[in-house]
Amino acid sequence: MALPENENGHEQQGPVIRDKRRIDPETGELRVPEEAAEAAADTAAAAGASPADAAELAEAKQQVAELTNDLKRLQAEYANYRKRVDRDRAAVREQGLAQVLVELLPILDDIGRARDHDELNGGFKSVGEALESAVTKLGLKKYGEKDDEFDPTVHEALTMVPMPGVTTPKVIEVFQPGYIIGERVIRPARVIVAGQAEGEDAEPQEGADGAAPAAGSAAASAPEDAADASAAESGSDGEDKK
Q: What positions belong to coiled-coil segments (predicted)?
């Protein structure tokens, strides 16, 4: 590989340093890369243009490319800005709506209690149903039913009642329903929960061979135990008589 020659025609020794800065430090003007200038010169020469025109054409193309990249970047930043503004606007709207609906929850509770006692009649029924329909259209949802699986994130347990046969905590009574808007819980459901009884295994106990004891074997042994107990009582009565 031949080394580059200097001005005197001799081979230059040592590393070759090429200035690839895009801005000329002396004039402050934009430099045109050598490859682009050569390509533009070749294109201009093929089209019959002068080298000066070719250099101007290459510089213009580079400026167009830079402006296009700037425009794409600004467009992406504006799209992200619009998404952030829309998200913040939705959050503010949801928060303000939740504050208003919280004040209406006691009225909704009264309507629900009146319905449970068959007292939602006449004009009161029309007003109550209209109010429930209005808050439903605003996104308010009621939740909390009997036999629902207990979820501590949306339920408030007033008390835990141990019940045999219960392996997973579940709701056995709803004291006060809960309400949500979207994914925001504006009031948790207040419930009574049934849980696993103390001392009760979650799974049936296994026998010595790894299998659960059969119900038939337990039932078959029950009469034998009863017979043994009866014989023991008879023997004790005979001894007392003697």
A: 57-91
Residue 51: partners with Cβ closer than 8 Å, 6 or more residues away: 41, 44, 45
Type of residue numbered 140: L
Say how far apart CA 127 and CA 15 lie, in whole Å.
91
The answer to whether the predicted template modeling score (pTM) of the entire model surpasses 0.85 is: no
- Is residue 57 a contact partner of residue 40, using CB atoms and an 8 Å limit? yes
Phi first, then psi: what are they for 175, rounded to 5°?
A: -80, -35
The letter for the amino acid at 178 is G
Question: What does the domain layout of the chain look like in residue ranges?
Answer: 29-105, 141-200
* Token output for 237: 């009565």
The length of the chain is: 242
Q: Is residue 209 a contact partner of residue 185, using CB atoms and an 8 Å limit? A: no
CA atoms lying within 13 Å on the CB side of residue 68: 6
Q: In what order do the strands lie in the sheet with 178-181?
A: 140-143, 178-181, 184-187
Query: Angle at Cα 224 formed by Cα 223 and Cα 227, nearest 5°?
Result: 85
CA distance 188 to 206: 40
Asked if pLDDT for residue 32 goes beyond 90, the answer is: no
Q: What are the tokens at 199?
A: 């001392």
CATH number of 141-200: 2.30.22.10
What the block records as the tokens of 228 is 């043994």
